[in-house]
Each structure stands twice: as C-alpha cells, then as structure tokens.
Predict the structure.
Amino acid sequence: MDQLLAIRAFARVVEAGNFTRAADSLDMPNATMSKLVQDLEAHLGVKLLQRTTRRVTVTPEGRDYYEKTTRLLADLEDIDTGFAIAHSKPRGHLRIDIGSSTASDVLIPALPAFQERFPDIRIDLGVTDRSVDLISDSVDCVIRGGLLVDSSLVARNIGHANMVTCASPSYLKRYGVPAYPEELKNGHRLIAYVSTATGRAIPFRFERDGVTSEIKIEHWMGINESNAHVAAGEAGLGIIQTFSYCTRQALECGLLVEVLKEWRPSKFPFHVVYPQNRHLTHRLRVFIDWLAEEFPKHLNK
C-alpha cells in the first residue's frame, strides 16, 4: 500500500463528502479510491468511514486521524513548495470560480498577461453566479463581490467596483427619467438582481452627501444571473442597478442610459476567497498576488 497516497485519498473523501467527487478531484477511478481507503483502514485496524448507499460519514477515529494527517500533509507540501519556489517556476492546476459578468468583463480580458507570466499554470474556470463549496467542489479560490460572511474562509480584497443605475432609452421614453431615488416608487419597474446564496433580491442602494438609502419596494422582475440581468435592462424591461463594468459597452453605444448619477452608491468590494485550513500552494499564491495587482485596473476602466 502507498500509505501517503492512501492518506491523501482518505482526506479528499472527508472533504468532498463522497467517493465520487473525491476520486474526480484526484483524477483516479472510484474503485481505486475505495480500495486505498479500505487498505488504510486495514493497516490501522480501525474504521475511518461509515458507508451507506446514500452517504459517507466520518467516524470519531476517522475525524481524529484526518486532523492529524492533514497537518502532516500540509508540512509535506510546505517542504515541496519551498523547493519549487527555489528551483522552478510555479506550475500545476488551479480551479477558480467566478461570477459570469465578472469573468467575461474583468478577469478573462486580463488573463493573457497572467498566462504569459506563468505559462506552466493550467486554469479551470468555473463561471457561475451561484455559491460553491470550496472544499467539496475542490475549488482553490473564488472571486466574489460583497462582504465575507463565512468565518472559515480567508478573503483578500482585490478592488472596488463602481455601481450604476440605468435603463434603456425606450423604457425612459415610456416611464420617464427619475429625478431622485424616491421617485422609483411612483410607477417605475425595477429589475432586481437575486442572490443565489440567499434567494433574496438585492435592494437598490443610493448615496449622496454621505447619506445612504435603500429603495424597498416589490421588484417587477428578479434575475439571478448577471449577464441576463443586464440584458433585461437593455431590452427595456425596467431599471437595473449593477456594476459599471457590466454596462460599459451598453452605455457607450446607447443601449442603456445612466440615471440618478448624483446618487451613485458606494463602491462595491471584491475579494478572492479561499479556505483557511487548506495549504496555500505556490501557484495559488502567485495567482492571488497577481489578482491584487491587476484586478483593480480592470474593474473600472
């Protein structure tokens, strides 16, 4: 038995919650993964996992073994990383998750510079506005806007985005141009962005002279994907409030018109987020450092 490989396999099953996702993350057959864990249990003489047809749970002995061996794996990776930094360029596979409009409008246009600097790092980019579980989904980091609510994660600020409120010319011709935020309550149709994490609509926020306010009325339409949210505004379905980079081209070519400019809300923070109990590999470290350097340049071009 390759005990180190078996320990890695066991750790991934604990983190992923089942054998299939664990096997996929290590690029090995499910049967091989199961055999490694069985051999490890036989070697130790204890049951590490309880298996049923529907789920896998960790025994108390398995939880204790996981906590001790993950420290061992982290120390070993520290040693390997130290040699990699000293003797070679960062290489390997990064799994990154990011929202759809942030991917297409901000990150992807900037990525050629990253790949030119670090050609040996391979990237899998998960593009979705839904929340992901970094551990069970085997994601190295996520790029998200807003405040960090999960204390088990580490967040590094990588910039702030301007927010704009806008609508199509056809909508404004039909419903009129609002002169101040409270006027949105007088017959205007608001298209809310609906958080995939909470299922709730994000309220329209405004700020002027240091005073912030929210418009709390029932939205006309709710959309939980950022590109579709902008498309609904362009189609004349209502007024949207979103990041300026999402609407840059539409505003320049006249598909959208900004309203309530004097009440623009505060800039929206963006973070790169990763698990605090996962070792920060050399490739992830250089990617995060590059994000902190380059991402703000592309948020508000």
About this structure: The CA atoms of residues 13 and 22 lie 5 Å apart. The two ends are 55 Å apart (CA to CA).
